[in-house]
UniProtKB/TrEMBL annotation:
Listed InterPro entries: MoaC (IPR023045), MoaC_bact/euk (IPR047594), MoaC_sf (IPR036522), Mopterin_CF_biosynth-C_dom (IPR002820)
Keywords attached to this entry: Lyase, Molybdenum cofactor biosynthesis
SUPFAM superfamilies per record: Molybdenum cofactor biosynthesis protein C, MoaC
Top EC class for this record: lyase
Upper taxonomic lineage: Bacteria, Pseudomonadati, Campylobacterota, Epsilonproteobacteria, Campylobacterales
Positions of the UniProt region annotated as Disordered: 147-189
Domain spans labelled Molybdopterin cofactor biosynthesis C (MoaC): 14-149
Role this protein plays: Catalyzes the conversion of (8S)-3',8-cyclo-7,8-dihydroguanosine 5'-triphosphate to cyclic pyranopterin monophosphate (cPMP).
Name of this protein: Cyclic pyranopterin monophosphate synthase
Amino acid sequence: MELTHLNKQNNPTMVDVSNKDITTREAYASGVISMSEQAFEAAINHTGKKGSITQTAIIAAIMGSKKTSELIPMCHPLMINKINVDITPNPTKHSITLGVLVKCEGKTGVEMEALTGVSIGLLTIYDMLKAIDKSMVISDICLQSKSGGKSGDYKRIHSKATRKSSKKDSKTSLESKASSSHSEDSKNG
């Protein structure tokens, strides 16, 4: 397989997408931050010194997704149609899982936007809680699924990457994740 961001002289280059079709593209990525019980309680109860940790992380994840092309050198600027962020606390493990769904109509995918959103959201949680716990660990940042584009659909199953042969199946999976997140948003106000 050829690396697309290197030219014939092995120098970095931005991929030419001018001949690609505009299609609907979606990507969902997630990651985890693990922390002490005290930091977890501060995050969930919004008692951190810097304000509401989870709400700030959601805003940061959205901003991070939107700024991806400014942070990752070979990423194209995209007109993003939707960004949805979900946060799932795990009281047993004192961890928070943050997920980002990004959607656009474009010539290139939104995987990097989803991954960047997750990274910035988790880093924001770390920043807001570091006065309580400097030993927090950010882990498992990965692409969970994508749809659209030349490379087809992708879905991670039990930490193993697999390709979906049916775009309908993958789209349904992404839509159910987004719908589930949207339902949670409605409950939370």
